[in-house]
Amino acid sequence: MNLQTKVSLKKGTRNLINYQSKVLLIGSCFSENIDNKLGFYKFRTLQNPFGILFHPNAIENLITNVINEKNYTEKDIIFNNERWHSLEAHSELSSSDKNELLTNLNTKIIATNRYLKEASHLIITLGTSWVYRHIETDTIVANCHKIPQKKFLKELLSVDEITESLDAITTLIKSVNSEAKVIFTVSPVRHLKDGFIENTQSKAHLITAIQWLLSSQAQSRDHSYFPSYEIMMDELRDYRFYAEDMLHPNKTAINYIWQKFSDVWISDEAQQTMQEVETIQRGLSHKPFNENSEQHQQFLQSLEAKISSLQEKHSFITF
What we know:
It is a single chain. The protein is 46% helix and 14% strand. It is of the alpha/beta class. Strands 2-1-5-9-10 form a five-stranded parallel sheet, with helices on both faces. The protein has a three-stranded antiparallel sheet with strand order 7-6-8, with no helix packed on it. α4 crosses α5.
């Protein structure tokens, strides 16, 4: 008896992630979940340098600014609730010191520009089609920073607008890094603050736009779609796979989707190295009954030998 429907997945045959790869992750909070897994296994990554970005326009704007090496000045930031903010970045970058914020923004632009040019893979996680337009500047923002709602207009991006934005993103990336592989996915997190019907419409627009983009033969060769959202909605269709807020995937769901991603996008050779890394990580987290015992000292020597052996093959790995 089969009590679960499975999303059909096919192992990639080219451009798989390995320990030579450099992965850039941009998008919703689900990008953090994937990055945490890649980080645990000691892959080289850069995740959301401007903080969580929920919609395609914010991601397109970030990529544009990174490639153009935008220099942020005081006219690009605003003051609200005793803190300085950028409407193009998440609140985690905000600061009570405007110079600190500007320095941070400009430093991240330069670092991300350098990383983007070297990246082998970009994982772009789209969260929503709903956006907020700042009335005063007539621009769609990445984050409202708890500025009064009356200063924004809420809009739903059309499928055409999202497709155009995604096409611009891939074109921009190719202009500086023709070898980079872009993997699109849609966040399984439900944005129910927009409403049940509105959330479904929002996700549908994202999925449709991605599929329209990938329907081009040229785009389908260079870029792909990983069905995080579909796995959550179909294979994990039970509230026991959600966190207490009933909106975010819980640890079990994240591990499950990560395993699916790993099966599809991480090379067999790299998965063998991952097993070595996991053994070391578990060893490092082990709490002995007696730190001074001969048995524990032998355990530490064995662990150090495993770390040295791994670092001979991958010098960038540190524990």
